[in-house]
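Hi there,

I know you've been waiting on this one. I reran it after we fixed the sequence typo, so this is the corrected version. Both the input and the resulting structure follow.
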Amino acid sequence: MRGLFFKIFIIFWIAQSLIFVISTALIVRRHFSESPPDVLSDALYSSLQVNARQAAGAYEAGGCAALQAYGASLAQTIALEDAAEQRLCPAPGMAEPGKSAAMPTRPIGIQVGKQYIWKAPASSPSGKLYVFLLSRPHTPRNVAWYQDLLRFSFPQLPVAIVVGGLTTFVLVLLVTRPMVRLRKAARELATGKLSTRVVWPVAQSRMFEGDEISALIQDFNHMAERLESLVGAQKLLLRDVSHELRSPLARLSVALELAREDADPATAAHLERIERETERLNQLIGQLLTLSSMEALEKVENLEPLSLNRLIERMIPDAEYEARQRQCTVVFHADYPCTVLGNQEILYRALENVVRNAIRYTENGTEVEIELKVAVEHGSRKAVIEVSDRGPGIPENQLTAIFRPFYRVDYARSPKTGGFGVGLAIADRAVRLHKGELSACNRKGGGATIRITLPDVERNFA
């Protein structure tokens, strides 16, 4: 199996080899381009050998005086040594290069202090061997360390940086692009869009075929497919069961009315209890069907400009009627007229469920506050509806869980509050269908606040 790390290793190895080959070629080329040509070297060695033979001949013919006269003719400082490298004649100003391990067989150069001394083997006309010395002043170059560094690194270092940068860029593209696609798909899946899949081009699929990235993409798509299948089956089951329960409930209501006609006063109380429980079950089935229909929607149809002020005012009479049974009141405050783009029926149902939930949990004798205002978030206007109660509040670790179907906090399961835990789930789905957000928080002084945020279309300052 071809692994991703093996591929990365191969790519880096090829890149480093390419950098090494290019750098070596440039260094060798520069070295040979700056070295003296072979023609100059041969001319220098030939000239030294000629001078060495003539100096040896002059010494044997006229001694040190003839040797010095020959050096003056060359305008050079020269000297002559025997085979044991002993100086034969004085040479003022010439340093002692020291003895070598063996007599040189070809011209060599030695740096001694500020002099550069060439040594060359010499053979006189009589056949005797000598060592010819020629001294030249040596002035070392005053080159800073950074100049040597630049001399060595240019152009090798820029080439290495360019090649390494291109290689890294290609690797980043190969590795991060599928990761970015996976992150985007995971975010969409987390928002409830279970049809999300990672779409991967055929060419890149072949490139990553059999490695870890390809396996991760396949596993993600398989996971999303299984989630969509399971959640779809659950929704279908819930909807079918709800539909099937409607028929026996209708028959049960008819049978209940027939039984009430023949019932004695002692049985009437039990029949009334059966009627209440039947009505509660019928309400639950209605909410389940509503939730199922909303979950099946991908987007809201028939959108139109809608005044939230008028929508809330139309809902308040029904809310006040239910609030009077709890000896509490409903108060509405609005900063400005606010208009959004939405479906009136769906938004009305969402607001009604949130307000009824607040009425159910607020304390007797208190008030439920509905506040409509406009806020600016991330540079865009938002319509904000806050519904606050004076109840026991919500545990901090359950502020997001209350919007799940059938979820209720512990104290909400008591017969005092009732409820099925479906109303807020319906409201949450309705708000999300309008590209809004539903959140909850605890208010200061006790109670909870449900916050509905919707995109604001128009804001009128009257």
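Quick highlight: Residues 212-262 form the longest helix (51 residues).

Best,
R. S.
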